[in-house]
Amino acid sequence: MTAIALKVEKVAAHFGGLVALSDMNFTVGEGEIVSLIGPNGAGKTTAFNVVTGFLDPTHGAVSYRGTALNGLKPHQIAELGLIRTFQRTSVFPNDTVYDNLLVGLHRQGRVSLLEAILGLPRARSSQRRLRERASELVEWVGLERRAHDLAGSLSYGEQRLVGVALALAAEPSMLLLDEPVSGMNASETHTFVQLVRNIRDRGVTILLVEHDMPMVMSVSDRIVVLNYGRIIAEGPPDMIRNDPAVIEAYLGQGATRA
Amino acid sequence: MKSGIAILTVVAFASVPLWLRDPYLMNALITTGIFIIGAMSLNLLLGFTGQLSLGHIAFFGIGAYVSALTSLGFDVGLPFGFRIVHHPWPPIAGFVLAIAIAGLCGYLVGLLSFRVRGAYFVIVTISFAEVVRLVALNWVELTQGPLALTNIPSITVGLPGLGDLTLRTKLQNYYFVLAVAVVTYLLISRLVHSHFGRAMRGLMENETLAVSVGIDVTKTLTLAAVISAGIAGAAGSLYAHYIRIIDPEVFAFINTVTMVIMVITGGKGSLAGPVVGGMIFGLLPVFLRPIMAPKAQWIAYGGVLIIILFVLPRGIVPSLALRFAKRRSRPETVAPVTFSERDAKEHA
Questions:
Q1: pTM for this one?
Q2: Which of A230, A242, B88, B166 allows an S-S link to B156, with CB 3.0 to 4.6 Å?
Q3: What is the DSSP secondary structure assignment for residue A153, as one 8-state letter?
Q4: Bridge partners (DSSP) listed for residue B149
């Protein structure tokens, strides 16, 4: 058993009377790829928002590598190396792909304001390093040819890649991907799965929310299934594939009997 | 190429006193220059963080009053029998204090309003300017109220090897304002191309995403507000020591509007925008004066503003830059002018 990276304990999130999540418990081990699946409205994105500090849970606690995340702001959680991507708003549309990555490199580029304004050697060399790193990342996600196009002008699938590269620019130790392959065609999805494996091989833990079942089944070490805000199953892909509760949640009751 | 234009512009401005002898026009250029510095500071907020400060003149006016009072001295009574007596300091100390105190006010306003932002920031800044105006009007013991602070001394600068120089003539003031404007331009340029600048742009374009890669919203915006307010304070100080008389009218809302118009017509988010917009609206009164009453001039401003934005909707500088880039790259694909390309050229 590897060390636990992310621990979600008894988390509940209510919006007024609506229960988006109730009593959610799961863990993600270091270097694991875990997927969070469930029908629409099951609470997957809410779970993401709670973990990354965009939403305060009504009850419960989340901790990452032993640090409690409750009450921390999103940028403070990003500081801990927990970086997410978004379903829809994944890029800075009016900047080039390359500039998007430079913004993503924010955590790496810190020099004091005075050094930056006076253009001191340390600020200059830091700028140079960031540029190199941004070029590397553009290459790594295979978007060299679009590097100087506005991110907003890219295809949907390409924008997802920029979103992931942006998150990687922030040097995550754990990456949370919110429906990364939605809008991608089959070959793009295939490439993306390779990319996710590559990222994991670099030692990054991954939590994935996704609807594309073949993709989830092929890439995950473990799957957590949510329905109506609670966990109904958890385990390796083979087990989830045959779990009656999961089949019922996705296909309805008739399917289990058929 | 871009830095070439910048150097040419500075040289052109520096040569103006050699062929322009008309004191009225020189005066117009000096006050225009001061307002351009104010407009540049406003652009830092409006153009690079997307936050509209409609009370920006407050920082300018605070700079003017702080600088004037520092160099004039004052003696005011406080509640419980305390008195503050301040003896006159050299105007250059006033200049520094003006930047510091205006910056501090920017910090407080930013801290108050950036938790909510957008429309709230606009309202907080308007109210702030109005409160400051009322204080200036009614704290007669300190500010002389509507009687105005008069006889404000001119700035004295220590030149290495040349001794002290007091800026009495228009010529001297012109070059001093030009120098401060150039320094301001360079400062803002460096700032927006640094990682602070990228953080500001990121926040303006997609705040949620910016936050998710570790950008601290409140800190970034507050920092922008402090620097912007500090620069506005510097402009206010220049104004006070050049005009040598200030009254609470300096806080008039119309002065903020003038700066906003300068930034929008010139092109917000472009470094040269406030300079171009500032020259147009700073010098327009000079040309309109013989043919129009002062109140009627405001109608003309509105007309000019509408025409410019109708023809060049992004503001003069960005629109022209875009057309120029299109023309040059017509044979190949059309490449929009982007941040990084400009960036790369400037640092090349």
A1: 0.86
A2: B166
A3: G
A4: B246
From chain A residues 38-67, the ones with a CB under 8 A of any chain B CB are 52, 54
Q: Which residues of A touch B205 (CB under 8 A)?
A: 92-95
Model confidence pLDDT, tens digit, residues B165-190? 777 788 889 999 999 999 999 999 99
Interface test with B, best of A97, A103, A118 (most B CBs within 10 A): A103
The ipTM assigned to this model is 0.86
- What's the Cα-to-Cα distance from B7 to each of B4, B156, B185, rounded to whole Å? 5, 27, 12
Nearest to B61 by CA among B274, B242, B236: B236
Q: What CA–CA distance (Å, rounded) separates B273 from B42?
A: 11
At which residue do the structure tokens 């295809």 appear? A155
| Helix, coil or strand: residue A151 | helix
Structural contact between residues B248 and B146, judged by C-beta atoms closer than 8 angstroms: yes
State the DSSP H helix or E strand holding residue A37, giving kind and residue range, or none if neither.
Answer: strand A33-37
> Residue A36: enclosing H or E segment and its boundaries?
strand A33-37
Classified as helix, coil or strand, A96 is: strand
Kindly state the tokens that stand for B74: 């004052």
Reported as a single tens digit per residue, the pLDDT across A30-74 is 999 999 988 887 888 888 899 999 999 998 999 999 899 988 999
Domains of chain A and CATH, by start? 4-91+157-257 (3.40.50.300), 92-153 (no CATH)
How is chain B split into domains, by residue range? 2-347
Asked if residues B336 and A143 have their Cβ atoms less than 8 Å apart, the reply is: no
Rg (CA), chain B: 21
Read off φ and ψ for residue B86, nearest 5 degrees: -125, 125
B329 touches A: beta carbon within 8 Å: no
